């Protein structure tokens, strides 16, 4: 069935309105009466603009922006490339994760969720456009020609929201069912080590309690499930056919969950604390999960530190990495402040958190090292002319961060962030105190761009993979020396 641009736009608008309602419902209608942050609080400095080399199609406006004039003139159709090249596209929709895995036979695969935002409306959109539903499996042995080999449609894979993860060591693919605020937490586990092109379902159980985002211990034996609304669950998956819930904590507001290399520390994107202002104080929470890792009976998980920062929006996830012997997190916020009356009533002046680097050498005393922001994230720009750009003022999209990743935890040189309407952005993080932009790749549609997914990295082909809500799975090659930073 062919859907008109007008119908697609209406579906997209409905989807976003429903997501606002679900987010508010999911946090117990957690709106704050506090006033909006001041311009001074939001005024972090953007990173230096990338120097675009041969073959680039640079942006025509400020860093990260696709101006209304480019849509009027048709310039947007060419896309915006800086030190990148368009290799391949697969599918016509995408969600929140693009993952890469190489199996025991040497086959390389990609996994991505095709359902974005609120499951009922995104599923309807996908069915109307012929995009399909479920988690897509791609044979990526030839990255220039992605080949779909399976679509996973077990309960959690139909609506994994932001929980889809793969464990490299054990070759396990997992997801939890979420949201509408936020579904029964069915945990699906697949074997992808034997043949990643044809994943084998090992179990589908309600062991996650509720679902939304997740974490995987590096040893592949523990899954952490966060719902953003009052639940954190730790599940023993040492026997993936018989998952066992080890630990459940209520009344916690955790989003993305990532685990230290030794499995003893959990880095939780902390939505905030209920109180007189409903939900406030969002940022990072560091949790001691060593008793869970050691399988102590009736384990405890004490909080080591709670960190906040100025101008945060919705904390999304914090990815651990090392640099010169020090421990860091690459943290990213999503959207704008949707959990306060002031934020919803004045979206243009609401904080845009983007990304940042945090030192966690001492897990009890984390501190901010640097910010990773674009010019479009600055307060004056965010509330200025760019609100007239297609999608530019979308509270559940627009010019904002969503997911970041690095090619390796061990001394990565480069980071990639999907920044929704600004597309895929690439940053040099060798000097953690002074990150800078290296390049970008953005292929917006008539309605704007919608790059939400965690990027995946393929060093063998010097490519980065990500998905766009409206244009599917993209394979992007790094050029002009960026490939040397893998």
Compact summary:
This protein has 486 residues and is mostly beta strands. The protein has helices at residues 5-26, 39-42, 68-73, 119-129, 155-158, 290-293, 341-345, 379-382; strands at 80-82, 84-90, 98-102, 108-113, 135-139, 147-152, 165-167, 172-176, 187-191, 200-205, 213-216, 222-226, 231-236, 244-250, 254-259, 265-270, 273-275, 278-280, 283-288, 303-308, 314-323, 326-334, 355-359, 367-372, 403-405, 414-418, 424-428, 436-442, 456-458, 463-468, 472-478. 12% of the residues lie in helices and 35% in strands.
Helices, strands, pairings?
Blueprint: H1 5-26, H2 39-42, H3 68-73, E1 80-82, E2 84-90, E3 98-102, E4 108-113, H4 119-129, E5 135-139, E6 147-152, H5 155-158, E7 165-167, E8 172-176, E9 187-191, E10 200-205, E11 213-216, E12 222-226, E13 231-236, E14 244-250, E15 254-259, E16 265-270, E17 273-275, E18 278-280, E19 283-288, H6 290-293, E20 303-308, E21 314-323, E22 326-334, H7 341-345, E23 355-359, E24 367-372, H8 379-382, E25 403-405, E26 414-418, E27 424-428, E28 436-442, E29 456-458, E30 463-468, E31 472-478
Antiparallel strand pairs: 1-28, 2-31, 3-4, 4-5, 5-6, 7-8, 8-9, 9-10, 11-12, 12-13, 13-14, 15-16, 16-19, 17-18, 19-20, 21-22, 22-23, 23-24, 25-26, 26-27, 27-28, 29-30, 30-31
